[in-house]
Amino acid sequence: MVYCSSQLLSTSFPLLNPKTLKFDAKYSKNWLPLQSTEGLVKGLYQTRVLNLRAMQEDKASAVTSDGSELRVPHVLTVAGSDSGAGAGIQADLKTCAARGGVEVVPEDFVAEQLKSVLSDMRADVVKTGMLPSTGIVKILLHSLKEFPVRALVVDPVMVSTSGDVLAGPSILATFREELLPMADIVTPNLREASVLLGGVQLETVANMRSAAKSIHDMGPRNVLVKGGDLPASSDAVDIFFDGQDFYELRSSRVKTRNTHGTGCTLASCIAAELAKGHPMLSAVKVAKRYIETALDYSKDIVIGSGLQGPFDHLSKLKRNVHNAYVQRAFDSGDLFLYAVTDSGMNKKWGRSITDAVKAALEGGATIVQLREKDAETRDFLEAAKACLEICRSKGVPLLINDRVDVALACDADGVHVGQSDMPTNVVRSLLGPEKIIGVSCKTPQQAQQAWIDGADYIGSGGVYPTNTKANNRTIGIDGLKTVSLASKLPVVAIGGIGLSNAQSVMETGVPNLKGVAVVSALFDQECVLTETKKLHAVLMEAASRVK
Ligand SMILES: Cc1ncc(COP(=O)(O)OP(=O)(O)O)c(N)n1
Ligand SMILES: Cc1ncsc1CCOP(=O)(O)O
Ligand SMILES: [Mg+2]
Prior knowledge:
EC number: 2.5.1.3
Strand order of the largest sheet: 10-11-12-13-14-15-16-17
Number of domains: 3
Domain Pyridoxamine kinase/Phosphomethylpyrimidine kinase: 101-305
Distance between the termini: 53 Å
CATH class of the largest domain: Alpha Beta
Bound molecules: the ligand Cc1ncc(COP(=O)(O)OP(=O)(O)O)c(N)n1, 4-methyl-5-hydroxyethylthiazole phosphate, magnesium ion
Radius of gyration: 24 Å
Helix content: 25-40%
Pathway: Cofactor biosynthesis; thiamine diphosphate biosynthesis; thiamine phosphate from 4-amino-2-methyl-5-diphosphomethylpyrimidine and 4-methyl-5-(2-phosphoethyl)-thiazole: step 1/1
Protein name: thiamine phosphate synthase
CATH topology of the largest domain: UDP-N-acetylmuramoyl-L-alanine:D-glutamate ligase
GO molecular function: ATP binding; hydroxymethylpyrimidine kinase activity; metal ion binding; phosphomethylpyrimidine kinase activity; thiamine-phosphate diphosphorylase activity
Oligomer: single chain
């Protein structure tokens, strides 16, 4: 058992040549001063070249030009070292580098180092991996009581993905009685869940659900039972339980031997997302998608000759090395006033797409979709790039309707697809874990499938008859309710919605109905700005009544 003693907390993609990847003090010359221009600070935030000494001097934060403090998300992991660099601290480091996070604990002063790091650098999240003795667990718990953090992520590493037993039974009682009650999330694989529960057989998804419930009874706020080893399952199914609801998280099983370190990586990714301030369920979903994407990206690489090989944590960074934009996480509140453009309507009123989008944003649109059915691909792409710049300047997500190719080409925030468009799971695999994907659903079955396929929200309608989409079946308020109740995904209502009926839509009383998507009510109008402002006011009024 070794604790990594590197001085460097994290690294950045300019340094991430896999052949030369080292965590070495010599990289400190790459340190960019934290007290600098906002642009540089943002660049730093994105590239995360963090040097321990500088971090200590600057208290892990910087001041932007508007005087606000910029906190650097910080994950401290306390885990074992894997000399093969696929699991343990090495997997944690690479995951945090890929997802944006920081960490390391020196070797022989566990208690002192925990104290010095937690007291001085204000870690947001602590993630644990292999903890070899009750002594170390107790030191950790003592430090966390003295210096509380926002979240504790416990990967109860007792049995590796390869089946090796990594922590003896002596530690089990301490895990159950002391560590788990402190955890915000615990992420056992099937074997670990079984060990925690005294050796019960876990062979089905139903078994995993009851295991998640029983482990939750031991005290952690959330439990993720990972079903990667579930026999006879074509999907990789995990069960997330937050004490109230169960969520079945599915991803396609990537056929590869390179699964070494997936457990560490998943927990590290959850920690990194929590450190960035994302809610638990969204952190877990992003982490699962990140694993799926990274496994798929590196399924064919051959490293070593063992039964399992490591995968490539930094695949996404390598693909997007020139792309400095860091997309913020999707928030269901973004669906509140969803503006969907229509090239025909803009032409009719003699305005460009960009002017239409600018006006909608000024009027209070909270998300924009470019639905340009008649546009030539090249024109669509140019318009999308221009609109994306406008939307990003306002912090509003921009989605592309139907055209995954256009979304990829301009790096849009996401895509909306319908039942006859590209399948959602394929869109997810093309866009990666972070992009926003919306799916049109008219039935409960479609809504359930949307969740399974990795959608972020559902668009449901037409709630009322519409002239905008030909031959569109109207499902009414009752249809909207049925679809919404069939899913935990947030829902936006669409179809024939405008000033006269938006309030009744919002007052349907379904908790996951988060807003309305409108085309003609905004864009088949003389003044987009005025109409958007009016609709915004109606929605605000409806929201205040619902509260
Ligand atoms: C938010 C939102 N919901 C539903 C749709 C409709 O999508 P689809 O069924 O694919 O039909 P087209 O819009 O492509 O004609 C949507 N675009 N947006
Ligand atoms: C794209 C779409 N999908 C279902 S209804 C609809 C059209 C909505 O347009 P409008 O808001 O003008 O009724
Ligand atoms: Mg479509």
